Amino acid sequence: MSFAETVKRIKAESVQSESNQYVPPEALFLSLEKLYLKEIKKLIIQLNDSQGAQSSQILAQIHETDRLYLDTRGMEITAQVLFSRHGECDMLGQKKLGLSPNAAISEEAEKNMATTNQFSGALLCYSSQEHPPLIAVSPMNRAMQTAGLVIPQEINNADIKVLPFLTENSVSPSGFDVRSIADMQELYDQLSFWTSPFKKLLLKLCIWTHSDEDFSPLYEKRKSAAEKIEKHGKNKILSDGDKPDVCQDLKYHGDKISETKALINGVAQRDCWLFGHGKNFRAFFQDVFAMDSAFDYGETRRVYKTKINEKTSLYTPPYVLVINQKTGKIEGKYTGRAAIPLQKKSVDPDYASSSEEKTIPDAPTAMSQLGTPVIRESGTFEKRALENSARVEERLDPEKEIERYERSPLVSTSN
């Protein structure tokens, strides 16, 4: 039985449960969640074994599986946000232990991702022609280069923004949006040795060991990337003048997480694709979803903006998508963890640590209103399930529920 057919069965039995207490919603949803994780795991394996057009078809299946699952939970998808970390920029190679200012991606990664934009359109949920996407990019070199290579080739009407709050969270010059010796001197002068000694020392070392000539190739890479990005949009991101460049804000001291939330809050019925940096995005996911895991090079995490009971929420599914830096192919990585609004964190026991197997951790709600503090529930899901256990007996066993849904015929809801 397909996942779609199983969802249909669960919906039918959910209706029955309201009339004759056949099985409470908690048991149905627990079974649905297990089936969903199982289906996603299977599709990720298929994605990694596929090529070309077949990969695009499987990516579409993954999205449809997400949609069916959320719809059954009463959550309507109202927008999608993609968080993509830049391509390979190695600490020892390109970043030179942090002493290579505003480091670019590796030449190998740039070459290997040259064809990624032929297939990246499969990550979109909406028609780009009917719902022009919002594309927001960090002004730093490696994020600009990645966006120029990855934005789907068919997009030509996007709303494009270059946003300083997407820059990296860093203590070393390789993570600063500096474009000249003067820029590094300006940042150096802003810092106090007593509050940021390491950062100040690294900047001084870079000022001593670099010249403005070192920034010329970086400017050319950034300008070339910006020109590629502009072809996908209806607005310019390069300034006018003898040396056009993207915006820069060396005095930025805002709240990056709050500004990212505000950006998402304004997105409706379209895709929003953010190109940025690992530490920045990691901080966002830790704050919103209590997910503290590093982003790989080229990793894209999907977040659905949803509506439930007329309130806006967020949901991130139990997988990530990664652009293989050796081939440029979009692959998947099953994590077994999903942040579910107004519920506990879904954890696949096969992918949980030993401590998680004993106690499933409480997860934050994905925000009942964007911009408000994250609310952590105190085990209400487990408590409600325990209260209903006497009524459902062995039917609460999700594995038995899966077998029953997959083997028995579809229940008729007609009288």
Automatic annotation (TrEMBL):
Where does the source fall among the domains of life?
Answer: Bacteria
Q: Which SUPFAM superfamilies match?
A: Phosphoglycerate mutase-like
Gene3D superfamilies, per the entry: Phosphoglycerate mutase-like (3.40.50.1240)
Specify residue ranges for compositional bias: Basic and acidic residues.
Answer: 379-407
Disordered: region residues:
346-415
Q: What is this protein called?
A: Coiled-coil protein
Which lineage ranks, top first, belong to the organism behind this chain?
A: Bacteria, Pseudomonadati, Pseudomonadota, Gammaproteobacteria, Legionellales
